[in-house]
């Protein structure tokens, strides 16, 4: 069974690129807004991994991450174009995100992070019955 990944980015090019690169290895759901993601989650859709842009027009990625962390448990990865990653390092230490990666991303670099997330999910499933 393929891991389910929800990819959130308000830039259409990035969504299309992610889908083109990862659709054969993972079940991919694309979203362009935080509201779309929340609607899907509230409807009961479940994802193993959520990858989101740090800043989208409707809410910052951090506020959104904290909201998701309170109610849902997918592994969370942030993509960012901002060079000051101190808040992201803090969010990773606090457990709000699994990891982060700079934009623009290269498929092989992002695949490495996703594969670590997949390994973590599999480990967690075996450790916590």
Number of DSSP strands? 7
Give the SSE order as H and E letters: EHEHEEEHEHEH
Q: What spatial form do the alpha-carbon principal axes imply?
A: globular
Query: Could you give me the name of the CATH homologous superfamily?
Result: Response regulator
**DSSP helix fraction:** 40-55%
Structural class: alpha/beta
Q: Which strand order does the major sheet show? A: 2-1-3-6-7
Radius of gyration: 14 Å
Could you explain the architecture of this structure?
There is one protein chain. The chain is α/β, with parallel strands linked by helices and 129 residues long. Helices cover 47% and strands 22% of the residues. It has a single domain, classed as Rossmann fold (3-Layer(aba) Sandwich). It is globular and about 35 Å long. The two termini are 19 Å apart.
Structure at a glance:
The protein has 129 residues and is an alpha/beta fold. The chain has a single domain, classed as Rossmann fold. The chain has helices spanning 12-22, 34-42, 61-71, 86-94, 107-127; strands at 4-8, 27-31, 49-53, 55-56, 59-60, 75-80, 99-102.
Features:
alpha/beta, Rossmann fold, 5 helices
Secondary structure layout plus pairing:
Blueprint: E1 4-8, H1 12-22, E2 27-31, H2 34-42, E3 49-53, E4 55-56, E5 59-60, H3 61-71, E6 75-80, H4 86-94, E7 99-102, H5 107-127
Parallel strand pairs: 1-2, 1-3, 3-6, 6-7
Antiparallel strand pairs: 4-5
């Amino acid at each position: 069974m393929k891991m389910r990944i929800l990819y959130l980015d308000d830039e259409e090019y990035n969504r299309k690129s992610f889908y083109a690169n990862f659709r054969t290895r993972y079940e991919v759901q694309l979203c362009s807004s935080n509201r779309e993601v929340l609607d899907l989650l509230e409807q009961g859709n479940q994802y193993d991994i959520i990858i989101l842009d740090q800043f989208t027009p409707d809410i910052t990625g951090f506020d959104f991450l904290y909201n998701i962390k309170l109610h849902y448990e997918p592994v969370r990865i942030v993509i960012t174009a901002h060079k000051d990653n101190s808040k992201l390092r803090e969010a990773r230490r606090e457990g709000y995100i699994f990891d982060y990666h700079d934009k623009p991303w290269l498929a092989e670099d992002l695949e490495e992070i996703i594969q670590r997330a997949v390994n973590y999910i599999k480990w967690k499933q075996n450790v916590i019955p």
